[in-house]
Write a structure and sequence with these properties.
The complex is a heterodimer of chains A (309) and B (250).
Chain A lengths: L1 E5 L2 E2 L2 E2 L1 H10 L4 E8 L3 H7 L7 E6 L8 H11 L5 E5 L2 H13 L5 E4 L1 E4 L2 E6 L4 E7 L4 E5 L15 E4 L9 E8 L12 E5 L6 H15 L2 E4 L1 H5 L20 E5 L5 H7 L4 E6 L12 E4 L2 H11 L1
Parallel strand pairs in A: 1-4, 1-6, 4-5, 5-12, 6-11, 7-11, 14-15, 14-16, 16-17, 17-18
Antiparallel strand pairs in A: 2-3, 8-9, 9-10
Helix pairs in contact in A: 3-4, 5-8
Chain B lengths: L1 E5 L2 E3 L21 E3 L1 H15 L5 E8 L3 H11 L3 E6 L6 H15 L3 E5 L10 H9 L3 E11 L2 E8 L2 E8 L2 E5 L11 H9 L2 E4 L12 E7 L8 E3 L2 H11 L5
Helix pairs in contact in B: 2-5, 3-4
Classes of the chains: A alpha/beta (309), B alpha/beta (250).
């Protein structure tokens, strides 16, 4: 069996969630990686070093520059013939493109898998992670997105894949990229960070994120996250959001500051290796999942913590 | 312009779900059911487009058991004009739903479909993308802002790391993310009016679709529970534990 994996990338190379998808693919068969973009020759060279990948297919065409769903899906469907499984990480791109691929192949996609039982059988969280479903697919091609936090990513180097160019299929352009507005940050991305410091409604305002959370995150080299309550209250932008409706993360260390621990938030971070909760309410549900809990006023604790690190 | 808004009946988002003892599914008997929250946002967006004069008619469609009529009534009370229930006892998957929606789009002459980005029960996040594929239409998923003008839908999308704006040539599919709008509460007069609106009842066969699932659920289990940890008394103790016991900081 050969598995095709759509690889998300940026200037630094293949992104961590894509390397987690490769780790999942390694359980299924031989791996071909797909790099689709515009001017991606260098990225393909970097991707060819990923361990366990037999071949990197490179679709270098202006049509793929912004990873719009329509040309991306058409490309993957054109390549699908030889593959038993087609995988992507469950990122914004993977979630946008893969169901479209599945429909064009007349397959039912298997979204956001957290484990692999065998080539036909997968485990995936349902009800925001409050239950796990084991599902068996009867489709000939399995179209899958992978929950990156559930699979340790493969290393960046160690392999020597062949590089093979593939042509872009002709496509009628009925969608067009206009612009993007990405948060600028020197910090690691939430889904790739080893440490995450998240704030909740207890932070009271956005300034307190800057004054109290940022210095702790700086000391730890951490990404900054937030609960949905903090996002809804306008303290921080939505892309900070950790939870069922935000990002699913599983860092080595997760600090939940002034976060009560709604089910919605726990769904996004409960697979973290070590969880620390700091909250003034000792009955807050977050303490039920925390390895280390500290009851007290975050406005005095955070400056103390920053000094102690 | 005619709009179609698919709405799904799901376990209410406030319910703490329990897995059945025989591990076949999540318990839904005697549990409060509501419209999928993302679908409520989609209905709201459709109603706003009608209020702006962009949409002429909004059709709310649901698929599943007879009780899905209640979900359609909710959409009608919010401002949808009429409803369609595709009635079946079969557990429907996104592929079957997308195929039935495709047939309805053709039958009703729909130009824009707005739907939730995912249902909070199976968390598939797939039906909108699949419907767009089957129709050959462009898709604007995870929308946080939508503007319709001159045959184009300009959609701002929630992507990793921020926002992206794309322009879609209509007809198109849009899937709603949380920040698109705040759905209204239906007023009592509108709830009364909704009772008089029509809901057409049809079957999957009427749409020429075989709704048999492609996935078999072998079992449903509780996720592993995290054991509660310890409370520490001070910042110094916390840092010492993280450093020496958990070894997660230098």
């Amino acid at each position: 069996m050969t598995v095709l994996v759509l690889l998300d990338f940026d200037e630094q190379g293949v992104k961590q969630p894509a390397r987690s998808a490769l780790a999942a693919a390694a359980k299924l068969g031989d791996i071909h990686g797909l790099i689709a973009g515009s001017g991606v020759g260098n990225v393909a060279q970097v991707a060819a070093k990923l361990p366990g990948v037999a071949k990197i297919l490179v679709a270098d065409d202006a049509a793929f520059q912004h990873a719009l769903a329509e040309p991306m899906a058409a490309l993957i469907v054109g390549l699908a013939g030889g593959y038993s499984h087609i995988l992507a990480a469950a990122t914004a791109v993977g979630k946008n493109v893969m169901p479209r691929v599945a429909a064009l192949l007349d397959c039912q996609p298997i979204s956001d898998i957290s484990d692999i039982v065998d080539g036909d059988t997968f485990i995936r969280p349902i009800y925001a992670g409050n239950a796990l479903a084991t599902v068996k697919s009867s489709d000939t091609t399995k179209v899958i997105t992978v929950r990156a936090a559930s699979f340790d990513p493969v290393a960046n180097e160690g392999g020597a894949a062949a590089i093979e160019p593939v042509a872009a299929p002709p496509a009628e352009a009925r969608s067009r990229y206009v612009s993007q507005d990405l948060s600028k940050s020197e910090r690691p991305e939430l889904t790739a960070a080893r440490v995450i410091v998240s704030g909740g409604r207890g932070m009271q305002n956005g300034d307190n994120f800057t004054k109290l959370i940022d210095p702790v995150a700086d000391k730890l080299g951490a990404a900054v996250g937030a609960s949905r309550a903090a996002v809804d209250a306008g303290y921080v932008p939505n892309d900070f959001q950790v939870g069922q409706t935000g990002k699913i993360v599983a860092p080595e260390l997760y600090l939940a500051i002034g976060i009560s621990g709604a089910i919605q938030h726990l769904a996004g971070m409960k697979d973290s290796k070590v969880i620390v909760a700091i909250n003034k309410d000792e009955d807050a549900p977050i303490f039920q999942v925390a390895d280390y809990g500290l009851v007290g006023d975050l406005f005095t604790i955070l400056p103390e913590l920053e000094k102690a690190l | 312009m005619k709009l179609l808004v698919p709405v799904k009946r799901v376990v209410d988002y406030n319910v703490k779900v329990r897995v059945k003892a025989d591990q076949t599914a999540v318990e839904t008997a005697g549990v409060k059911m509501s419209m999928n929250p993302f679908d409520e946002i989609a209905v709201e967006e459709a109603v706003r487009l009608k209020e702006k004069g962009v949409a002429t008619e909004i059709i709310a469609v649901s698929m599943g058991v007879m009780q899905c009529q209640e979900t359609i009534r909710t959409a009608l009370a919010m401002g949808a004009d009429r409803g369609i229930l595709v009635e079946t006892d079969i557990g429907l998957e996104p592929l079957a739903v997308a195929k039935m929606l495709r047939a309805l789009v053709a039958k009703e002459g729909i130009e824009l479909v707005i739907m939730g980005k995912q249902a909070i029960d199976d968390d598939m996040n797939a039906t909108g993308q699949m419907l767009a594929a089957l129709l050959g239409w462009p898709q604007g998923t995870f929308a946080s802002k939508v503007e319709i003008a001159d045959g184009t839908a300009t959609v701002t999308r929630e992507v990793d790391g921020g926002l992206e704006t794309i322009a879609l040539t209509l007809p198109a599919i849009i899937t709603a993310d949380l920040r698109l709008n705040e759905p209204r509460y239906a007023s009592l007069p509108n709830i009364m009016k909704a009772r008089k609106k029509t809901i057409d009842m049809i079957k999957p066969a009427d749409l020429g679709v075989d709704p048999a699932p492609r996935l078999t659920t072998l079992k449903v289990t509780e996720p592993p529970r995290r054991a509660a940890g310890v409370k520490v008394g001070s910042v110094a103790e916390l840092v010492a534990k993280l450093r020496n016991e958990a070894k997660v900081i230098p």
